[in-house]
Amino acid sequence: MEAIPPRARACVACVVLGALLCLLPLPSLHTPWWAVLLLAAVYAAGEEVARRRFGGTFYPVLLAAAFLLPPPAAALVPLPAAALVRAGRRPEGLRRTWRAAQLAVAVWAAARVHWACGGRDAVVRSDVARALLPAGAAVLAFCLVLTVLDGCMRAAAPAGRPDAPVPRGTAPLRAWRGLFLRSLAPVAVHGLAGLMMAVLWRSPYGPVAALLVLLPMGVSWWVYAQYHRERAAHRATIRALVQAVDIKDGYTRGHSERVGQASMMIARELGLDDERVEVLRFAGILHDVGKLGVPTRLLRKDGPLTPEERRVIELHPEYGHEMVRGISFLGEARSAILHHHERLDGSGYPYGLTGLQIPECARVVAVADAFDAMTSTRSYRRARPVGAALAELERCAGAQFDPRMVAALVRALDRDGWHPAVTAGDGSAAVPPPPVPGPQEARR
């Protein structure tokens, strides 16, 4: 444990002590130990499969134990899995200890809440209607304990340390932000499966019928894993295209990722749903993919472009649209790639669309693209400060840019600031920036 900081060690020690206190009444309990062993074995097997095949966790059996067993006995169920299932990252022993103690405390808390709410009697009588409320309270307790303990470890672990039990540290006041809400829905689904297991266990059909509940859960996890594999393939496709653009147009390396980030900020500020936010992020990342069809000598030319050369570069939205038109998961991002250089007054390209003729997604990407172009250093001009770039966007709103998109970006940056994940440009300084970011910066 020498590599672990003192605060993280203290956090692990406190949770382990709490788990031991939860187990203290075990010697005086009268409980069917075969049930404890069976549930522990099923949980260990399920956790191994869930981690290896689906990259997730396996809570239904733990929650079924909380509904069926006394709290100290229920707290025993996750312990064998800690000894058998690999943690996957070092320090292996500390991670297993942390996970076992954390789950033991969470299951104990869920069982205590369930029994206090009268859930045990409802489960024994197989009264599903009466069992729902105690089960819901137990699920909330389980989820709350897990998120509080995870938040403590996130606050205690140093940022970026791969050897910490939780590999990402964060500020104490932000450690718990969003953890509970993100985990509540999946834990609630697992809790419903656990309640079904517990009711069937106590019914005349017995434990065998209860374990059959895990079959549809396994199918749903398989479908979910396939969905995530498909999304991973989508991201790999996009990453390959962006890397190809960055290699060809070295002056704008990192620009695509930053435009994706700014597009996502605008979309969230507009209140768009998560699916459209993700599509707009793809649109921002891929907006310049058509540069793969533009001669490299034009993209890397240091001097001014001739009118003929500019016309060639202005074909890149159409090239990009042709390249991605067969990628169905991009959806409306394809029209953003085609129209992100259109202007509200009709002076843009490739088709000279005006106003609302320009798709909404393209109007979002146009603002994000111009903002990053102005705030990034290029070989032919210096970067502008964020405030100056926003002022320029507001000045051009209504003629070049959609005022609603500009206002959304201003609000998002006022609240969150601008912290691009990728630094672009070669750091060289050239000439002062042009007064208006638009078609004259066709190489961005």
Molecular structure report:
This protein has 444 residues and is an all-alpha fold. Helix content is 64%, strand content 0%. It contains 20 helices and no strands. The chain crosses the membrane at residues 60-85, 97-116, 128-149, 179-201, 207-225.
Q: What's the average pLDDT?
A: 80
Helix share bin: 55-70%
For the terminal residues, how far apart are their CA atoms? 50 Å
Total of helices = 20
- Percent strand: under 5%
The largest sheet is: none
Number of domains: 2
- Assign an overall shape: elongated
DSSP summary, beta strand count: 0
| Unreliable segments of 5+ consecutive residues | 158-173, 423-444
Overall SS class: mainly alpha
- Radius of gyration, taken over Cα atoms and rounded to an integer in Å: 28 Å
Order of helices and strands: HHHHHHHHHHHHHHHHHHHH
Keywords: Membrane, Transmembrane, Transmembrane helix
Organism: Streptomyces tropicalis
Protein name: HD-GYP domain-containing protein
Pfam families: HD_5
